[in-house]
Amino acid sequence: MHLIDLLRENREAVLERWFDLIVKTYPGLSSMFLHKKHRWGNPVGTNIDGAIAGLFDELLKDEAGEDLAPLIDTVVRIRTVQDYSPSEAVAILIFIKHVVREQFAKQIDAGEVPVSEVLQFESRVDTMMLVAFDIYTKCRNQLFELRLEDFKRHFSGVLRKKGITVDYPKFE
């Protein structure tokens, strides 16, 4: 049997396990909250759940499409503003490798699923991780720029009250 066929047949179980592993990275009660399936009551969990479903579908394609980067952006942007380290922010994407090896270990070990297909799938995940790191870096830079602009506005207001004007240079 082909790995892609197994993944398609077990889509919901794989996605549920992947989501569970992601949720476990959140502290305490946050993990319970993230399991709620309500768009307005749990926007973070809903966005992550939808994004990983889309990413899973992209991983099953022969070649990644245009939807890959925006889906990765959804997950990574959330993790970036939550102050996870770079590795923690993008590591959740690699969890799919663990899920596949865990759920299909018997078929892989028995040779029912060619190891070459597992390696090919994992290579796609690795490519997704590289894209994720690029997106994380861009998000982190945007966050830094927003914080810097906020600081400059606040600091400029304080200086204006004291009668001091400052022109900040633009960084490109």
Automatic annotation (TrEMBL):
InterPro entries: RsbRD_N_dom. It holds the Pfam family RsbRD_N. Residues 13-147 form the RsbT co-antagonist protein RsbRD N-terminal domain. It comes from the Bacteria. This is RsbT co-antagonist protein RsbRD N-terminal domain-containing protein.
